[in-house]
Amino acid sequence: MRSKSVKFLSTAALLSLMACGGSNADAGAVESASASQSAPQGEVRSISAADKKKGAEAHPQLLQEFGGSYDGPQTAYVVRIGQDIAVQSGLGDARSDFTVTLLNSPVNNAFAIPGGYVYLTRQLMALMNDEAEMAGVLGHEVGHVAAEHGRKRQKAARRNSILGALGQIGAAVLLGDSALGKLGQEVFGTGSQLLTLKYSRKQEHEADDLGIAYLASAGYAPQALSTMLESLAAQSAIDARAAGRDARGVPTWASTHPNPVQRVSRAAKNASKLGISGGKRNRDAFLRNVDGILYGDDPKQGVIEGNDFLHPDLKLKFTVPNGFSMQNGTRAVTIRGSAGQGQFSTGPYNGNMTTYIASAFKAVSGKGQAIEYGDIQRTTVNGLPVSYAIGRVKSRNGQVDVTVFAYEFSKNSAFHFATLAPAGKGAVFSPMYDSVKRLTSAEAAAIKPRKIDVVTVRRGDTIDSLSRKMAYTSYQKDRFLVLNRMRSNENLRAGQKVKLVTY
C-alpha cells in the first residue's frame, strides 16, 4: 500500500477496457492450438485502432494497480525479450507494435491485453531461471490475446458494469450469489487482476500451445514453459505453508490459469512433440540481468513479514490473526481467511471521522447497494483515536456484518479496515483491530528490502550452506531449491551460478 491517499479505481470501467474487441469470432469456437491456427505462416494481423485505444486507456490504470513500472536495469532487457516473443504471434509486424512493461509488484503475475500491451512482474521474473522461461510465460499471455480469449469475458464485463468501484476478495463464501454476494466477490482487492481470471481449460491449453510454438519459432527451448509452470507450483506450496494456508493452493498467476500440475506434464509432452532438441535457454544472460532485482515487498509500499504488515514511511504496523493471509497492493492490503475477509487502506481525511467512515462504507457498497450502519463508536487503540461502525446486510446464506474500523494518525491522515464476517462473528478481527500501532523511527529504519543476489558457487559450498544465507527465518532450503529449480539431492559444482535472496 502506497503512502499517498488511495484512489479507488472502477473495476467495471477497467474490465470494459480489458475486454477483447474487434473480432467476429467467439473465443469458445477457437480450436485447440497451434501457431498456424492463430496466425498462419507469413500472415500478420494488424492491431486494430480500437484495441490500441483500449490498451492505451487501460495501461495507466494497470500501472497504478501493479505498483507502476519497475525502475531498474532489468527493464530494457525484459522489453527486448518481450517484444521478440510477441512478434512471433503475428499480431503486429514490428517489435515497436508492443509495449512491454516490467511491473514493480511482489505478486507472481504476467498478462497481456489487446493493443499490444504485455506485462511481467519483477517477482515472477525473479522466480525464473533462464531467458526461455521468461519468453515462454510472456508468449503464453500473448497467446491469449492472439486467440481472442477475452471475447467471452467481454459479456461478463458488461454484466459486472453495475458492480461499481470495488475490488476482489471472493466473499461469495459468505454471501453466495446474492446481489451483495456479487459485490462481495469484487470488494477489497486488485480490480485489474480480474482481467486474467477464469479462462477455460481449453483456452489455457491453447495459450500453452501457442506459447510453446512461439518459443520454438524464436529459437528457444520449447520445454521452457513447462519448467516455469513447475517452479510456480512449487513456490505456491512454500508461500502457502509460510502463511499457514493449504499448501495445495496455487500462486496468483497459476490460479488464473488453472490446473498447473496437469499443465506441467501436458506442456512438456507437447513441447517434445515438436521434435526440437536443444534450443536456446540463455541462462547466463538472464542471470546477469536478474541480479539485484527487488524481491518481495517494496518498503515504499509496506512489507509483509509473517502475520505482520509494516510500513516504514507511514510508520504503522498491524497483525492479522492466524489462519489469515495478506496481499499487499498499491491501493490496499487485502486480508483473507475462512472466517472473514477485508482490506486495510486510507482515503481523504479532513479531521471529520464521521465523513470518513461514511465514505468508506460508500466505497464498499458500490452503486445502488447502500449499507445502513449503526452509531459510530469511539475508543483508542495503542494511543490512536479510533472510530468504528457496523452495518448488517442480508444474503442468501444469512446475515453478514460489514465493519469499518478507522484510526486517526494525524489531523489530516487516517487509515481504516473494512471487513466482512458472518453476523455476530466479527470479533474474529478484534485482535487485528487492537494490533494497529505506530512504529518508532528505529523500527521503521530497520525494515529493509530484499533482492536477488546471483552468486558463484565456490569449492565446498553446498545447498545447505548457501540456503542459510537466504534472508528468511523459515523454509530457507525450500526457498533456495525452488528459486534455483533444484532438487535437494543435487550436487553443486564450483563456478556454477545460483540465486539467493538477501537484504
Question: What does this protein look like?
Answer:
- By secondary structure, the chain is α+β, with helices and mostly antiparallel strands.
- Helix content is 36%, strand content 19%.
- It is built from 19 helices and 17 strands.
- A seven-stranded antiparallel beta sheet has the order 8-9-10-14-13-12-11. The protein has a four-stranded antiparallel beta sheet with strand order 5-6-7-15.
- The two termini are 21 Å apart.
Write the layout of secondary structure elements.
Layout: H1 11-18, H2 35-38, H3 49-65, H4 74-86, E1 99-103, E2 110-113, E3 117-121, H5 122-127, H6 131-146, H7 150-159, H8 172-175, H9 179-184, H10 201-217, H11 224-242, H12 252-255, H13 260-273, H14 283-290, E4 294-295, E5 303-305, E6 308-311, E7 316-319, E8 325-328, E9 333-337, E10 340-346, H15 353-365, E11 377-381, E12 384-395, E13 398-410, E14 413-422, H16 430-435, E15 437-438, H17 441-445, E16 450-456, H18 463-467, H19 476-483, E17 497-502
Parallel strand pairs: 1-3
Antiparallel strand pairs: 2-3, 4-16, 5-6, 6-7, 7-15, 8-9, 9-10, 10-14, 11-12, 12-13, 13-14, 16-17
Helix pairs in contact: 1-7, 4-6, 6-10, 6-11, 10-13, 11-13, 11-19
